[in-house]
Amino acid sequence: MLPVDEKLVDIPKINAQTIKLLNLSIGFGLIIGLWLIWGNILPAFSFLDEIVLWDHKATVDGKDIFQPITLTNLMLSGLYIFVMVIAVSNFSGLMELFLFRRLDMEPGSRYAINQLAKYVLISIGLIAVANELGGSWSQVQWLVAALGVGLGFGLQEIFANLVSGIIILFERPIRIGDTVTIGDVSGKVSRIQMRATTIIDWDQKELIVPNKNFITNQLVNWTLSDAITRIVIPVGIAYGSDIELAYKVMMDTIKSTPTVLAEPEPSVLFLGFGESSLNFTLHIYVSELRNRLPTTHDLHFRLEKAFRENNIEIPFPQRDVYIRRDKPADKTE
Prior knowledge:
single chain; about 325 residues; Alpha-Beta Plaits; 8 helices; elongated
């Protein structure tokens, strides 16, 4: 079984996050209690507002004024960053405890919600910090314009991957745990991030695939809506064999193979006459992708044994070679 980042319910992780959240709640409760008790002496800390670190220009009622950034603003920014980090690191456990466990929701949906919510929390935290430190749109608009030009040239691939990552999280053409084939890469999806998706292939190698490939290239998702897949096995028997007996033997062998599904119904079709054999094809269905190779292996063993017991020959290419010997020409003197 290939490892993936997400499990249905990660009990140890949730317990650790619950304990951490409980400790943080107790800590915040103590801080609020101390603030209520010692609130009368808080004005003594007003000297922090007098320690000016720098000034920034702001527009108030159409007028440009300089507003000071004090040590208090810097400390509040640090508090915002601390709260943002705690919220982002514990959000998934909090949602699992209070929401997801009460809803019948697929793991991929939970992962998408957690990832998008983390991006929103990070954005809110950064905006709050920038606002506290005097950041404004007028100061970053030229940076945004320059970034737009950069995206149009050198960063367009990175931007395309970021947008594709958001599309993947919303449309969900792939989910955590899905088995996919993209180009010549096949494996199980273990992680979906903003820029790239991690796939673990059958050799247990982690392959980093840019998200743009999943949107613009042809993608095969073996487990998106139904994990059942069909296996086609060609079989040839020798000319002169009893084809009705061969058909019955193959059907009985298929039905006796435990990993072959009864629904959809398997079938044996007589395709035609080959150079050295009567050609049949077996259509069978398995419940999971990982059962394809073991089922093919098992069925080959069973078919060979059944043919041997019923004297049905599996042919191999044969050629008849005729050697023509011409009479030597008469010698004339």
